[in-house]
Amino acid sequence: LMEKLQFLLLDTPPNELTEKETVQYQESILELQNLLHQKYNGATEHLLKTANMYEDSETGNMQAVIKDKNVTFCIWANLKKKVRFKNHVFCDAQHGFQLPKSLAVSSVAVRILHTRYDHVSPLWLQCQSVPKLELLDSEELTQHSKDNVEEPEEEEKQVREEPGMPVEEEMCSDGRKTAISFKEQSNGIADINETTEEETEKKSEILDIPSQGIWLVFMCSITKEETNGKEAAITDEDIVDLQRFVPVGGVYHIDALQLPPQVKQIKDWSMVELLDGGVEAYPYPPEEAEDTTPPPIQITLRLPDNVMYFEDPVIARWDPAGQQWRTDGISNITYEKPEKSVTFEMGAFYTIALLQDAHLNMPYQAWKLQPTAMDEALLVVTTVFATVQIQIKGDQCMLSSVVVEERDVLSHITGKWTSPVDLRTVLKKAGVNIFPGEYSHKFVSVNKKAALAEVRAYQQMALVASAFAFAWSKWNLEAGQEQVVFKVSEHLKADSDKDWSLYMFNGQKAQKLKITESSEAFSEELEEDSEFHSTLYHMLKDSASKEAIDRVETASFLFIDVVYQLLLATRVLTYS
To answer: Are residues 415 and 321 in the same domain?
Structure first.
């Protein structure tokens, strides 16, 4: 339920969610968090009261491990209080700890609660601005498409009367662009003489992307004042910058608890002393040790198999007072990559997360989008660490494979059809982030492009993706900010994209370049016998086969929408 509420906060368009509803959702999440931890504390108290019933035959202490798909619950009770106690490993979970002598002889219990979700990080991080796409429901979408086909002249007249419609921008209080609404797509199409009325109607239906409910929304998740406050706080080098690093693999709640009075068997009766406070934390370091540094606790965590750590993770502790992740208080970190474990020492018992640079897979080394059948395509994004393949079919997409060091990984999330929004969430949770966020440009060497050129290029590419393959070009970096360059090839059969051509597009003008990928220098010189066109579709039509054009004109608008969402989410023209 908490995940559903967070998804609603992330995915609902700002104009459909009132401030009151947002506050209600956030309060509900906090209440559910508290309820969940009350349940865990209740289960902990019940187990500890009957700890002597679960006594381990070898050590004389109590241990238990309870696991499900979302939680691993490990509890250990120090029943024998042996001064020679060294460490303990929960065999079923491979988590472990080593206690200082003062704790080894105390009535203490240690709990490691691993939740595979993160409900600790602040909500401003979980709901921070990312590109979002909204789609009209099917009835509105169908009616809107019909209206555009039946009354093309009226709509063109409306566009001419409202020259400000093509791009609308709203500004946040800090001056950032927050919304770009593309309400027209055929500004140059009217200049092209179509051969038949039927063809004109087809183009109107296919090329008018807004009639299919696609538009881009950049939200401001925090105000200027909040941003300035956070940036000022992050000058403390011990505070983790959550614009750059993200928790991966969930959260580990590591607690020392006071061992409650144990159950005593008297004849046929089981008797236990009841305490009013419930389960209580064991104070460590003790208050009297303020002037001295007590020995640290050593913790070993077995990392989950369902996430990827491409580099040594950053170990951080949660600071509830400051509502932030911090790295101070943690030392002597050892990361064993083959064993997938990390060992570290900490001065007290903390809630721990393993964080990873959200941008280590950016910029991409290459990308490619190619059709595989009617209304089907494959998007391949190659990064320094991984090659990610996403299959598209109709109105859904699927993670086909993630290859790291020539090995297929993350098999638990591959082969499942889902929406682009869900796929993005699943991949980011698994530690594979190929989706730039609001702050990504601060941490990645970005190939900056004008929004008009970049977004309209994604729209035009999506329109013809059923018959044409697109790929990365090194000349995109040399083309300047106002235009994008990419490779294009007609692709109707397997291995039919060997004849690549270079195209340049600035959002209003498309042209075929004379240079090739292997040319020595960049040039904007046109290919011989080619002309400028206002759209990529009409540019490609000059040299395309009839079969390719037929495919483009009959492509499903839902397929076009999914391709567009994925291109916009990955931003391959800017982050490659």
So the answer is: no
